[in-house]
Amino acid sequence: MGIPLTLLEAAVAQGGNLLVLALVLPVVPLLLAFPLGGRLAGRIALGTLLLGIGVAVAIAAAVLHGGTALDYHLGGWAPPLGVALKADGLSATMLLVTAVILGAVGLYARPEFRVPPEARETRAPLAFWTLLLGVWAGLNAVFLGQDLFSLYVALELVTFSAVPLVCLSGRPETLAAALRYLLFALLGSVLYVLGVALLYGAYGTLDIALLSAKLASGDPAAPVVLGAATLMTVGLLAKTALFPLHLWLPPAHAGAPPAASAVLSALVVKASFFLILRLWLDVLPASLTQQAAPLLAALGVAAILFGGAQALRQARLKMLIAYSTVAQIGYLFLVFPLTLGSAAAPAGPEAAGALTGGMLQLIAHAFAKASMFMGAGVIAAALGHDQIRNLGGIARALPITVLAFTVASLSLVGLEPSGGYAAKTLLTAAADASGQWWWALALNAGGLLTATYLLWVLFNALSGLSRPPTLLKPPRRHQELLVLGLAVGALVLGLVPLASFDLILIGRPSVTEVANGVGLQ
Amino acid sequence: MTFTTLFGLCGAGLVGLGLYGLICHPSVLRKILAFNVLGGGVFLLLGVIARRGGGVVLGADPGSDPVPQAIIITALVVAFAATVLAVALLLRLAGATGQATLDAEPSWRPSSPEKDL
């Protein structure tokens, strides 16, 4: 134990520098890729992604071992003059999930985005690897930033890298999907900046900690706070694709190459959700959040029902998976009422489980959805189409991929013993304990819908086993194993003891403290 | 009416005009232009906030708050990059399909789903 412990101590001591490393690491290969070209870019990107997993593990270990958030002040200037970076449990968890998923996506995409030996340079590989690194750089900045305007810049970096990923194939319908995505995202970001400007004008600071202290001591329902909160939230919702601002998501996520779809669905929409979480839990006063929470959760329920119903109607596998993302995003918004309770009945100690449950839902969905999109890519490459009705017999032709799809389905539906099950159990327990049974009802209705459309896919995949289809080309074994690995990852999340998710809550005031603080004001 | 009020109202007007154009105009080029008008409104508002003094640098001369000015410069660069990206996508779309709107029903024939990998 001597050496690991020394390493841990070193990680805690170097905590701040680790945060800088997490920001710099994706940018270096991104800049190197342009002079070196697409052939080397893939190799450098993969190498850096593996290093990045190491850095993310070190940050998570330092936060867990130290028991507090890691801080860093850029240039040694403390806010309000400088800009702070901070990794609390939420950030450390997101950094780790991002690094692992991107690592798997990079390995999956390696053969598809390789410059052929006879060509000197091709467009798609260079574009894909630089954009993937751009998404990673932006995501890390979103998770670590503590300054509302820096967070805007980070979110734009994510968006500008994600939009071209949609139309890498250059087909007209993907161009239209990318353009629609960009227009929604631009409207979202300009509304967010307007909100940030109003907050700065009223309170003179953009640092999350300073701003939340000023907001807590002022009038929580001041018009400027309400206006800014509404503008920022609507802007971020457009980027998160919460119903009814989801219109851009299905064509964009379904049209992108499989590896890109996996990144977009698993990680990119979660970046703006993460900022909504920061905004309502860490910046705005809890009493205001308690009033807005039912509205956010109601939109979430609408997304669960609408996304599920639309998924049932889809003929193509990738479109079905994309609508499933619309529905699964809805679950995340149930966190708000369940974490803080209502003004009449502030949350008790069991509500801490709601935030853990919400984050677990986010992580399990990231793993399962990345697995599904990449699995759909394997199926489409092998069959030449992804029409659900014509999937008959693929369970015999592509057994590993269909097994992975089944395992990922367990988690999305929320069946034991998956990560999705653990998440739903925690959320349902919080709903019961705080007397908000109707949110638990929505959770279960969503599970039923999810089960219906995923079983429809499996029913087709498992029918006609006596006549397996002829494959255009055999699947790549390592891609199939990566798809299975991610699906098993979503499953294993439900098997590890819940105490291992204590990391998520490190560096946060306990929920009862927040709720009681509301009562005292 | 002071100058800050006047410019604040102008900013609000630009935001309203831009929002209307971005949501209601079918032509994508007009949407992109409307996004720039909307951004201009936000920048004007930030300029007003800078002029009034945000209150970070206590005792400083009003009109010298540098933070909103730095925000404007950064956001200008971001908005410029966004516009370039949007126009580039629009040019590719118009080149491929000959149309510059995002209707629900495309007038061009989408490539067959079989090729949709």
Structure explained in plain terms:
The complex is a heterodimer of chains A (521) and B (117). By secondary structure, chain A is mainly α. Helix content of chain A is 74%, strand content 2%. Chain A is built from 21 helices and 2 strands. In chain A, helix 1 packs across helix 3. The termini of chain A are far apart. Chain B has one domain. Chain B has 117 residues and is an all-alpha fold. The radius of gyration of chain B is 20 Å and the shape is elongated.
Q: Which residue ranges of chain B are poorly predicted, with pLDDT under 50 across at least 5 consecutive positions? A: 54-58, 111-117
The structure class of chain B reads mainly alpha
Beta content of chain B comes to under 5%
What is the number of strand segments of chain A? 2
Q: Report the radius of gyration of chain B as a whole number of Å.
A: 20 Å
Question: What is the number of independent domains of chain B?
Answer: 1
How many helices of chain A? The count is 21
Number of strands of chain B: 0
Shape of chain B: elongated
What is the residue-averaged pLDDT of chain B?
80
Please work out how many helical segments of chain B DSSP would assign.
3
* Basic shape of chain A: globular
- The radius of gyration computed from the alpha-carbon positions of chain A, rounded to a whole number of angstroms, is 22 Å
Termini gap of chain B: 61 Å
Order of helices and strands of chain B: HHH
Helix/sheet category of chain A: mainly alpha
- Span between termini of chain A: 48 Å
